[in-house]
Amino acid sequence: MTIRLLGRTEIRRLAREIDFRPRKSFGQNFVHDANTVRRIVSAAGVHRHDHVLEVGPGLGSLTLALLDRGAHVTAVEIDPVLARQLPTTVAEHSHSEIHRLTVLNRDILTLRRTDLDEQPNSLVANLPYNVAVPALLHLLAEFPSIKTVMVMVQAEVAERLAAEPGGKDYGVPSAKVRFYGDVRRHGLVSPTVFWPIPRVYSGLVRIDRYDSSPWPTDEDFRAQVFNLIDIAFAQRRKTSRNAFAEWAGSGNESASRLLAASIDPARRGETLSIADFVRLLERSGEWQPESEGQQVRS
């Protein structure tokens, strides 16, 4: 298999040929460094016969690197000009690998599992700032088949996603992604590997979905847990007792539910882990399990 990856000169040539100008509204900054895309694909652990969902392939730098690993790639691109060009670029830079590529011209937030003939087991994406967290949470919920995630996002978003409870960057995204799996940083990416050059660094984040979830994963349960997370972080300066008072019906009931979940009512929401939020719901009487035997990981 021989695939030629894109470089800076070729990225700009391609853009000129299709009369394309990057749009800020789509957060379009394209990687032109072969070592960077190889690093991303390697960190993602992509292998032959994996089915990768790629979000925002742009001009195809990362797409080619994924195909070079032998993977099948479904690339979802919101820009119709780029979606039309991508198969041509892949065909010109490889031999027979085009048959392993499917391109969908879609808004990623509207993608459903029924839109794909084969369910992906991996997600690799260069996500723009304005949709990074909503897109990530949508895909994790919609595609339980996705076991590994590698996303490149602005460094600020990477810090929030990977932050631990009690840290200054810990917030709603940090807690919610941990509902699905383990999260860890994979370093920074320099602005100089992009065209156009952004003003900020990017960061790589990997998520590994739990082999066996420590808690229920159905939509209703997830929605109730996420509601508790939203409540806690909407009122950062309040104690948990006060933050959850309206949800529980009173301050005393809030304290009672927190104590039942082994949570000090004086703790603030930003110190609670995803296991704390799950335990709070399970022991509050607001949710009844359909089956026994699910344990919450501490």
Would you mind describing this structure in some detail?
By secondary structure, this protein is an alpha/beta fold. It has two domains: 8-209, 3-Layer(aba) Sandwich (Rossmann fold), CATH 3.40.50.150; 219-282, Helicase, Ruva Protein, domain 3 (Orthogonal Bundle), CATH 1.10.8. The protein is 37% helix and 16% strand. It has helices spanning 8-17, 34-44, 61-68, 80-93, 132-142, 155-162, 172-177, 219-234, 240-243, 245-248, 251-260, 274-282; strands at residues 30-31, 51-55, 72-76, 101-104, 122-126, 148-154, 181-189, 194-195, 202-209. The strands form two sheets. It has a seven-stranded mixed β-sheet, sandwiched between helices. Helix 3 (61-68) links the parallel strand 2 and strand 3 (72-76). Helix 2 (34-44) packs across helix 3 and helix 8 (219-234) packs across helix 12. The longest helix is centred in the last third of the chain and has 16 residues, at 219-234. The model has no long low-confidence stretch (mean pLDDT 93).
